[in-house]
Input
Amino acid sequence: MMNEFPIYTKQWFSLNALQRFIKQQFNAELSAKNILATLAQHSEIAILFNANYQRGTQPLLLGSNTYPTEHFQLKAPPIWGFEEITKQTILTTLKQKEAIQLKAERTELSLQQIDGKPQITALHGLLYVPPFSLTEEALAFSDENTLLLPEYSFYELFEGVEWTYNDNVITHHPEFLYLAFSDPTVEHTLAMADLRFYLDDPAQLTGIFSAINSELGKNQPAAEFNAAELIKNKSNENANNGTEEKIKNKKDFYNKAIFNAIKRTAEANPECGGYQIINAVIAEMKARYNLKENADFHSIRYYLDKAKKELKLSFPNNRGNRKSEIHVILNAK
Output
């Protein structure tokens, strides 16, 4: 809840505001793409956009761009990043009530039971720009006015949402919304002008853009600073797979989540072999997030070799010993 008398500060910025700041502080002119390339390296700043949707009455609005209902699917994965007990409570409640409302200061999320599954029927709030859109590869297809979106991706809410259950207020932060555009003839984008940036301490902006000084020199005239070139050889942990390998195709997009799940699931099931663990992780991700084995995943051997080499995991040799149920852990604590 916002303080009734907040202390004077500035935490929200547009691209235009950031460009003015850079011009005044560093006498440099950065393009929208170069600003995004720089900010993608800094987890302390949130890169966001507003989303609005009402099932049956309102098309999907991403910023100011409109997408008719027939052009997309908006899905709620079964777990939602909630604790298991919360998931069961939500499912039980949806069987008894017409809808559930989850709200925050700037966010509203509505769920209904449709065809036996919880479905999103309304969404109003801020979402993080997906990591794919901030990679060097994706920015190559963007320009000063338009940011490219993936055909399908997971999206995270900026705020945790509150839900009142049995007179108790419970706060949740759903990990993923799944948005899939189904019309390949329509380009899926955000307007650069619709992006919003949130930073707890605006003084950090000077540090974030400090590389401009070393690139231009203190007394150089205003010039175009190429942030993408500056960071090209640095590893981008937010956009890679958790190893030193850069994203090369869409199968790599899920690697970070997959290797995290393999590691944590192996720790929770130490008696299980590598093939068992990886098969269970992939099966769970397919079920939760509507992914396809051939389209979205590498081979089992690919994940096993990397898990052993780069995560330094070891698995017992237990061929013929099959555990009936493996506890798969996808969500980071």
Summary: The chain has a mean pLDDT of 75. The radius of gyration is 22 Å. The chain has two domains: 12-199, 240-333. Residues 12-199 form one domain.
